[in-house]
Each structure stands twice: as structure tokens, then as C-alpha cells.
């Protein structure tokens, strides 16, 4: 018995206004001609131009993307393995510790994760930098990936894999030919999640960075501490735009993939 | 053999990059601060073997932990973090529940879109979302401009750099974590139960209070933990939106590390914070496990 009442409509409208208005305002003011961010002085794209001429920002963006691609790829491999361990391997010595270590980073305050990894890296590596940020990000992102992938693995019909084995596949082949294509959407969204988490992270990166490795969030952080600036608004707008487009494309393509899979399954049953 | 490989790779990784770092934090929290590089004097010297261990326990004075109790900055920061996290969670529940409820009542064809609209902010940079509020809440900001234009106030309100701004920031950034678990609990709700309650004479509100709310209890609990736990150690929000009087332990830890360069005290702050968090984290995991078993 569902009744969509006025009360529901109002709470949804107000709720989404609360979630989205601050970002809409931010985007709007990035096109402001005035240096004063709260006074509207006509339309202008000059802050975007300034941004593109800011070499330090571009360098930081490049470092951030490098870190995000490397760490999310590493996190996806490790996280998928961890998900297989959680869902498939049954009991083994230290399983409780394992699931605790998968779970805890999800709720661990970033300052603790950052400090502890710094204290580990400092004596081990002669210099901290991109490589240590990559290791740090891969570690906390793999836990998110494993949560996403294991939820898909739980729903997955294991008899398909058994059938492949009966038909002569080795375990590795049955994984590659049967399991992986089916969990692929979850693996991809896990990678995307790891990528955005890395792109977004200020605290852990600040602890584990070294000379020459300044990421975009650190750059934004030092600018924002001095107050609101139109250049940062422009940068934020670009980042919001990329994410929005990315999420929309991803959701459309997963929907299509799901429909295609359904159709193929139906055809397979029919034939 | 293959199974061993599959288990050991992520296992060893997590041991090396998650568990061992905590052991190191614990070890450094027990050492003395020093004006050197690295800025602490190790107390536990493993190369000295058994003698080293004996010397370590003999000289164990918990100096940094004693320091945390002597300077009232620290315990005030812990208490204030707990307080801010608690009230932010409460506000997030009050704001998030009606939204989740509205989503669950919405027509089927809207749901995927509504769901995406809740998740989308989570994908956008956390830092940017907090930053967005700086322009809104400042003294010459948009909120004050709006209120003055409406004639509700004559003088701009001071909101930015107060605890109120911190509450707004936490509720805003963690709201999706509150909405999603509640929504997934409400979505599973069997509508005929509400019909039965109304047939038995409940008013709509009573039916909501006696049937809907208890049945979404697990979602509420999960949502509250997902807001409360990270909010305690929050650093970015109190630093950007809070003022000099806003005390939060994440900020204290950051300053001990980056400004005072006092690694042992920063490590001790982290150890105590971890001890505070252990209870809610275990309770949360229990709740999740119970729910998973109930779903099966």
C-alpha cells in the first residue's frame, strides 16, 4: 500500500534542494566576473582561463590522476581477491581477523589511517611520494571494492561455475570465462569507486606524501583555507561536471548491460 | 594451493598495511618525544632481544597518555567530538528519514533516478562539498543576503566558524549514508501490514509509528552508525567550517602531527580515539551481521 502524499513530495523536494543547492550555487558563481564570490558582476569564464594557466594546479591534477589510476587498479585486483575469499573459501584460520580487517578501514577515521601508514612508511622508504600515496589509497580502497564485489558474488549462482567445471574447464578458466564476466559490472563499479575515493582524499594523502607529490585536494585545501576563491569554484565545477557525466554514463551502460544479459539468458533458455 | 594463494595475497597485504601500522602507532605512543629525526626516542629496541623487552616494560611510564589527562585540551576535545557526532547523527536522522520515506513511497519508475540523486553527491569531492558551504554561510554570504532581503534579520548572522556550521557540514556530507540504509529497509516493508494496522483502528500516524518505524529499525541503526563513527574523527569539516573554539579530536591529532611535529603525542591521541571507536564499530558490525543472517 503505497501512497505518495504531499508530505512525501515536500520532504523529497526540500531534501534534494538541501543536497543540491550548495553545489548549484558553487557552479553558478564560478561564472562570476567579480573576484568577490558573493557579489554577482556578470557572466565570465575568466576563472577557467586562469585555472588553465596555473601550472601548479595542472601538475597537481596530473599527480592526482596518476595516483588514482594506479591505486584503484591495485585496489580492484586486491579487493576482488578479498571478496572471493570472503564469499567462496569457507572457513580458514584467522577468518574473523580477515573480515575485521576488510571491514574496519571503512569506518576508520582518516587521521588514524593516515598517521599509522606514515609511521609505517617513514622508516621503510627513503623518501615518501607518489608510491606511498598509491599504497595507502590501494589499502583503504580495496575494502570498498571487496564490499561491492562480494555483494554481487553472493547473488551469483554458483552452479554456473560448477557446470563449466563439469564441461572440462580448469578452475582458472571457469573463473575467467564464467565468473568474471558475470561479476564484471561490480568489478567496474568497484574500480570507479576506488578511483573517486583516491581523487577525493585529502587527509591520508597529506600524511603519506613526500616532496614533489602534491595532489589536487592538497592544493585545493591550501587555497580554501584562505577563504572562498573563484578559481577554486571553477575547478570544483569542472570536477562536479566530470563526475556527473561519468555517473550518468555508468548508470546507463550498466542498465543496458543488465538488459542485454537478461535477453541473452532468455534466449539461452528458449533455444 | 590456489586457495592458499587467493587467501594469502589480500591477507598479507592487509596485515602489512593495516594491522602492523597500528602496532607501530601503539609502540610510538609509548615512546618519548625528542628533538631529533625521527622526533621520538624508541623505548622498545627489538635488536636487544629479551633484555630490551625487560628494559621496555621497566621504563614504561605511559608518559604521553598521562600528558593527555593532564592537559584538559585533549579530554575536552574527545568529549566535544562525541557531542558533535551525537547531535549531528540525530539531526541527520531527522532530515534523512523523511527523505528515505518519501523515496520508498514514490512511484516505481522514479526510484532508480531518486536513488542515483542520493548517491551522486557521494561521488563528488567531499572537500568541494564542504567548501561550497563556506560561500553560503559566511557573513556576507548568500544565506545572510537572503535573510536580510526577506527582512527577517537586520544584522548578518555569524554562522561560519561556529559549531552550528560544523553541524550543518556533517549533516550535509553524511546525509546519503543515513538515507540509503533506511531506504533499503523501508523498501522491503510489506504494505499489507500497514493496511492491517489501519483496519484494526490505527490512525495513519499511529500505523507509521507502531509498524513502519520498528520495521525500519535496522536501517536506522545502520545509518546512525555510518554517520556517528566517521563524524567523531572528522577533520576537514571542523577545520573549514568550525571556528577556533570548535574542538574536535581529528583536528587536534592533525595539529599535533603537522604543527607540533610531536609524533608520540599524536600516536597517543590516535590510540585513545581508537579505543573510543572500538565499541561503536563492534556494535555496528554485529548489527550488520544480524541483518545479513536475517536476509538469508
Care to describe what's here?
The complex is a heterodimer of chains A (271) and B (296). By secondary structure, chain A is mainly α. Chain A folds into two domains: 171 residues, MetI-like fold (Orthogonal Bundle); 44 residues. In chain A, 79% of the residues lie in helices and 0% in strands. In chain A, α7 runs antiparallel to α8. Chain A is globular. The model of chain A has no long low-confidence stretch (mean pLDDT 88). Chain B is an all-alpha fold and 296 residues long. Chain B has one domain: MetI-like fold (Orthogonal Bundle). Chain B contains 14 helices and two strands, in the order αββααααααααααααα. In chain B, strands 1-2 form a two-stranded antiparallel ribbon. In chain B, β1 and β2 form a beta hairpin. The longest helix of chain B has 34 residues. The relative contact order of chain B is 0.13. The model of chain B has no long low-confidence stretch (mean pLDDT 86). Chains A and B meet through α1, α3, α4, α5 and α6 of A and α1, α4, α5, α6 and α8 of B.
| Low-confidence region ranges of chain B | none
With strands numbered from the N-terminus, the spatial order across the biggest sheet of chain B is 1-2
CATH class of chain B: Mainly Alpha
Number of domains of chain A: 2
Give me the CATH architecture of the largest domain in chain A, please: Orthogonal Bundle
CATH superfamily of the largest domain in chain A: MetI-like
Amino-to-carboxy terminus distance of chain A: 39 Å
Count of helical stretches of chain A: 11
Number of DSSP E strands of chain A: 0
Oligomeric state of shown chains? heterodimer
N to C succession of SSEs of chain A: HHHHHHHHHHH
Q: What is the averaged pLDDT score of chain B?
A: 86
Number of helices of chain B: 14
Helix content estimate of chain B: over 70%
The major sheet of chain B is characterized as:
2 strands, antiparallel
Biggest beta sheet attributes of chain A:
none
Could you spell the SSE succession of chain B in H and E letters? HEEHHHHHHHHHHHHH
Outline of chain B: globular
